[in-house]
Amino acid sequence: MEQIVKVNGIGHFKYSSELKSYIHNEGKVHWTLKLADERTDIDMLVSKAELLFVEFERFEHVAKIEIAEELIDYKNDFWPEYDENDVELDWVAVDAGEYDLTTEEFVELISLLIVEIRSTEIYCEYLDGGLFGGHRIHAYFNNEYKLIKAEI
Fold first, then answer.
1. How many helices (H) and strands (E) does the chain have?
2. Is residue 42 helix, strand or coil?
3. Average pLDDT score over residue span 79-83
4. CA angle 74, 110, 27 (to 5 degrees)
5. Cα–Cα distance for residue pair 126/136, rounded to 1 Å
6. Global pTM value
7. Average pLDDT for 82-101
8. Could you report the per-residue pLDDT of 39-63, keeping only the tens digit for each?
9. Is 37 helix (H, G, I), strand (E, B) or coil?
10. What rounded mean pLDDT belongs to the chain?
11. Taking the alpha carbons of 92, 95, 101, 103 in that order, is the dihedral positive or negative?
């Protein structure tokens, strides 16, 4: 028998025994309620998802800014927007930061793909918008929606 839970605002989540999670893949963002083990309280995960959904627009905006602030130096230092082998490259302009991506540009390029509600944190996965060669951005937030870490 198929196990389903309803999350207000988001919809119905179907249980995947393979992933030990309840999954909702309809819409732009895919949602997961991750069961750490058989003791995980599914009602608590549903509550967390419902609360996040209510705050979703604000959360997504703040989260993208925090991720951009965390990763902007890495982006500009190791994934430059110029060709280092270009003989015409103006290295003075490079050193002055004229080719650096701004936090605002970074925020505009990334897009949320996955939200995974866990008992101790919220995991989000973002499409990089070409910033890191198509690699996904992995972000971890505490239960108060503050960024713990972001990585490629």
1. 4, 8
2. helix
3. 77
4. 150
5. 6
6. 0.90
7. 78
8. 789 999 999 999 999 999 999 999 9
9. coil
10. 92
11. negative
